[in-house]
Amino acid sequence: MERLKRKYWSCIMLVILLMSSLVMACSSETPTDNTAENEPPAQSNADNGADETGSESGETVYPIKTDKKLKYWGELPGNLTGVKSSHDDVPFFQEWQKKTGVQLEFTAPPTNQGKETLNVMLASGDLPDMIEYNFLSFPGGPEKAISDGYILKLNDLIDKHAPNLKKYLQEHPEIDKMVKTDSGSYYSFPFIRGDDSLRVYQGPIVRKDWLDELGLPIPETIDDWTAMLTAFKEKKGAAAPFAVNSKPRILNDFNSGAFSGAYGVARTFYLENGEIKFGPAEEGYKQFLALFRDWYAKGLIDKNIATLDSKAMDANMATGATGATVGNAGGGIGKWQPMVSEHDPDAVLVAAPYPVLNKGDVSKFGQKEFPFSTGGMVAITTMSKDPELAAKLLDYGYSEEGRMFFNFGTEGVSYNMVDGYPKYTDLIMKNPDKLAPAQSMSLYIRGNYNGPFVQDKRYLEQYLALDTQREAVQIWQKTDIDKHQLPPITPTPEESSEYAKIMTDINTLVDEMTLKIILGTDPVDSFEGYVAKMKSLKLDRAIEIQKAALDRYNSR
Fold first, then answer.
1. DSSP string, 191-254
2. For the whole model, what pTM was predicted?
3. Domains detected in the chain
């Protein structure tokens, strides 16, 4: 605690300089923060743990009998931007408090300013009871956040006060391995994808009606893709036959290796016969760049590929300027199909497999999440007024009742049981306020994004309302990604700063190389020079750090 106080005084000028960010975080979006910030903690009527849990055995019974109020910091779901301004206005968060019996005071950072606002809050030393944040991205990792005195090591709390999470991890040792550090420290209540079908949601998408009209098959090989995009341009008049939202897509080559995978590489670290490799330094990445450079030069890729945003991408799809892309089953096919149908009633968007060089091959890479997903994890801070109560609150999401609530909401409101199946009501699927299902879901459940709970595949079965969406997931699942994807490894606190500096420089260089070669600013043969520069920036040392982290992970 003294360490946090010293940190506060040493960082006071930083806090003053960034006070505007705090004001934004505590504005009308989160009115509860200002009104209760300086109030003393409420005194509980319960004088022992048995009263609070409602069970003398220590097994938590919900709602918990307590009048304590805990502070909870986390971002408002992105789907609710423009729909609700604070957690207090969202039915899910209101009902969560009722079902658990724990009152919560919410604070949310301004949209897209979570990291910056968190840094200011940590510097101030004034922490809430719980923080919803990806602590794997914390400088030095979760062990550093623990040793710096920001968040608690949760082993004892989970053992004594989170029986539902404890039981789940005991029954799923492969996930238990993922949610703790190399030294065995639990640091958050994690978001867990409860079924393999929930782990794949992204891949190539094409206009099937155009293919039928042109007598072309669903593309499987790179040659198929070249022929298809050429036909889309020349015979369908597509101004941008292939396009993707630029920032999360082209600079990262979709990170899934959507097209570089055909050449045996991905734009990240991966495993090849037990050896860790970095895709952008391999020969296959040069071949991928040559392909996209050729497509760009021939007008097969949107000329604004480096700056295309989601609004322009939507317009491309809706107007028929684009006939092929990479996107999600829900936020891609589900969003674009109504748009293209409005302009062309015969339009049909379908999935294509991840492309390969030779027909019949299976792509090495593709998008696939781990069962433990880094979004939605919740840590308990060292300044929590009642860590035991916070643990009991968070453990609710791993109970049978809590899992139903997080995934489906309140029975009779957001879902009804129909022949033993939790079926969403029209409030969700045909919202009277004309909200899209993704938006209405985010009002009443957390199943369609993340949080401290186990996600249920029955949410997805209903969210993907179109046959083409469900078929897409099955098609995109057919890759060899499991053989090549690195598990969620972490550098030690000592390695972390060194690794971060190396990879910041290297990733900046890779982004530069990727765009310059694709756009024709640099020749393809400049690739070797870029690789040499990656080596000079200590790529080999980054691989060494990754290898050490992998060895520690395998020893957990």
1. EEE-SGGGS--EEEEEEHHHHHHHT-PPP-BHHHHHHHHHHHHHHH--SSSB---HHHHTTTTT
2. 0.81
3. 2-35+65-196+372-407 (3.40.190.10), 218-228+238-312+355-367+483-554 (3.40.190.10)
